[in-house]
Amino acid sequence: MTKILKLVHNWVGFFISLIMLVVLTTGVYLGGADLLKRMDNKGQVFAEISKNLDHELKAELASKALDQYPDASGVKLPTKMYPYVDAHSRQGSVFLDTEFNEIETLVKSKDSLQSWMFWFHRNFQLGDVGKHANAISAILATVIMFIGLYLWWLIRNGFRWKHTLPKNSKNSALIKSHIQLGLIFSIPMLIMAISGAYITYGVRTAASFDENQPKLSQALANDWESQILAAQKIWPESELVSVSKPRKPVEGSYIYSLNFNGANPVGLLQADTIQIDLLSGKLVTAQTFSQRSFTRQLSYSARFLHDGARMPTWYLLMLVISSIVGTAMVSFALLTFVRKEFLERRAKKVRKETAVTASS
To answer: Against a cut of 0.70, is the pTM above it?
Structure first.
């Protein structure tokens, strides 16, 4: 049984590693770009003020931005992570300070390097075929990692830091490093693989809401500021992060969303949502992450556990480091496998043929 598992781990791992190299290196680029974005404060400093004043300021900023930039699909409000206003759409973003002065304008392009890298990471620029190949590879990578952990468990002989980085380029040193790094980074690597597969094949269900919704007070029809302030009173301790317009407005209503940072077991940001009909000022839904069904929680969490976009910065940094380490692990395994299964066997065959020729 052990011999079969080793063969599966080595041979299936060899072919999956070729795909993993692409996914991991593009993941490093995308995660690094997100980290750099978080480090760019646009010259702004987040000011801590009382909750009431903060609520009023954010409601005012959102109202102004939505009125002044009617083509924007939403507005991101100042937080510690992003201490500026971002009126954004698919075409680009306008960044503003809290005094509503324009700081910078960004025009998005489908031909940008980041867009190309995203789709190469997602589906290798091959559409649905690439998407499914990627997801199946993620499933197989998960199996390979569990097999590797099991094989290590059978022969475990302690945890040795000195094997973490290879001392030389010999097969034995590279394999020891591959095993050691695999043990250290097994959890984030498994999270990335499992969540990546779930994004493609995970169960998706329609949103379900509690019919006993809290009632909005003092909310005026067609008044962004009044409605945002009234919504904030429902969750006074939560941080309002963004306001999103409806993607497809329905005639007779205009239901937009307010996204909040609240407490949840996964640590997700912007996971609590209140929806309001702008035309009537009526609350449509108010739902925290914990109030969603388990399937909805999984579906929502998978994407952000995979790319770290709505996770704390430390988590995103962990993903980037794990992807860099994963690239090294896979490279070590590929190099040793090619040497052992192809180069060394070919060399032995050549030596054997030479010996036969010489003896004859």
So the answer is: yes
